[in-house]
Amino acid sequence: MELEAKTCIWTRPKDEYLHPLLKSWLGALDEYSRLHRDFGISDNPWWHNERASISLLAGAAWREGWVALEEFGTSKRGHKIPSEERGDRVGRCDLYVTNREASIAMEAKQAWQRIGYRSRADKEVRDKLQAAWRDTGYLHAYEADTRFAATFIVPNLPASEVEDGDAISPSLLREKVLEWLELMAGFCRRPGKPVSFAYFFPSDGERYLNVYTGTVYPGVVLVMEERERGG
Fold first, then answer.
1. Which residues sit opposite 224 in a β-bridge?
2. What residues have CB less than 8 Å from 113, skipping those under 6 apart?
3. Which of 39, 153, 187, 202 is surrounded by the most beta carbons within 10 Å?
């Protein structure tokens, strides 16, 4: 029996306005993957790089009737040079999205998290959650109504760990994913401080195998953490 896609959206009460955006993001992931599957191409939008992941979230915003701007120049908080007092510097904001009710400025990171037998299955996640949080602190409060650290998490593991005979077992792969999701317990950067998140693990995640490295990439998670104060 074919597995169903494993998807989830969870937002803090304060972040409920993110729900339509995250739902659109899930839809964009599914649409991209299905379109390529229909042409016999095993491609997905999460196994490329951070820039590609940002572009898909921007696309999800437009898809939902928001507007979006990527990688635009702006001034940021921080040191100009180490010997000077704290001041503005020239930089870029990864993504700005807005509708008529709310605007969001984001700094993003992408975590390539190994979840195999001999892997510490949260190290890269913790590092990138912290890095995204740090960079978001450099954005000025006037950049948007809210500032969010956005972390795209791409779990991956050796295909050999989920093979049944000569092929990847969808059920073994799903079991590994569920174990990892339980381990991450809400993707909190700091214990006791909830964050909003969404994830997408398609029913055919076994298709996303890098044949050169023997690594399978079954899906993606997006963690959104608001930063109210700067660094």
1. 150, 196
2. 121, 122, 123, 124, 125, 153, 154, 155, 156
3. 153
DSSP SS3 for 164: strand
DSSP secondary structure string, 19-48? HHHHHHHHHHHHHHHHHHHHTT----SSSS
pTM of the model: 0.92
Q: What does the block give as tokens for 230?
A: 């700067």
Buried b vs exposed e over 81-102: b needs ≥16 C-beta within 10 Å?
eeeeeeeeeeeebbbbbbeeee
The residue type of 94 is D
Q: Which residue has the tokens 């693990």?
A: 201
| pLDDT digits (tens), the chain, 231 positions | 567 889 999 999 999 999 999 999 999 999 999 999 999 999 999 999 999 999 999 999 999 999 999 988 676 766 454 545 556 665 789 999 999 999 999 999 999 999 988 888 899 999 999 999 999 999 998 889 999 999 999 999 999 999 998 899 999 999 999 999 999 989 999 998 999 999 999 999 999 999 999 999 999 999 999 998 765
Collapse the DSSP code of 59 into the 3-class scheme (helix H, G, I; strand E, B; otherwise coil) and give the result: helix
In sign, the C-alpha dihedral spanning 158, 161, 164, 165 is positive
d(CA 26, CA 138): 28
Q: What is the DSSP string of 107-140?
A: EEEEEEEE-STTS-TTHHHHHHHHHHHHHHTTB-
